[in-house]
Amino acid sequence: MNETPPESEDEINRRHNEKKAKQHAARAKILATKTEERGLLIVHTGTGKGKSTAAFGMVMRCIGHGMRVGIVQFVKGVWGTGERVVLERFPDLVTCRAMGEGFTWETRDRARDIAAAQAAWQTAKAMIADPSYSMVLLDELNIVLRYDYLPLAEVIATLTGKRRDLHVVVTGRNAKPELIEIADLVTEMTLVKHPFRGGVKAQKGIEF
Predict the structure, then answer these.
(1) What is the pTM of this model?
(2) Architecture of domain 41-191 in CATH?
(3) Residue 152: beta bridge partners?
């Protein structure tokens, strides 16, 4: 029985190049139909780590393009974080307001948490209405919505009514279905494994 001779490297490369050329042509055809440019409502949720981290990555991209960004942190208080130290070096491009009182299990004061959330929301609305911002990050907004510290209907109306060219990023676990419904991009971080469960505490450069 005659065996098929193995392909030469030249033949393998030729078929590979043909395949990639077809893929490139197909992608170019798809991209040609994507002509709309507008601000997006982006939601990062889920139990896994990386929701705020990914959001701050987009903040860094905006800075690189000279775009102005407003940040409201609904839960994280004044304790230091690496990203905040970095962003302080770009005062002309970034406004970062850490307005939380800490996590709810730390304050144990519902009235205080609600007051902090409402104050942060007023700041957030002002940033959303400010035409100088290209992006507004509402860090951990999902958490205060989960506990009903803010009127969901008002939040949804504000985000739906944002100006067309503004990007808004919302982070935090347990995103409300109503928020997911109106969002343009939703990413759910899935927890597979976390060192905290093995007794490892939060570490500089990783969690803060």
Answers:
(1) 0.84
(2) 3-Layer(aba) Sandwich (3.40)
(3) none
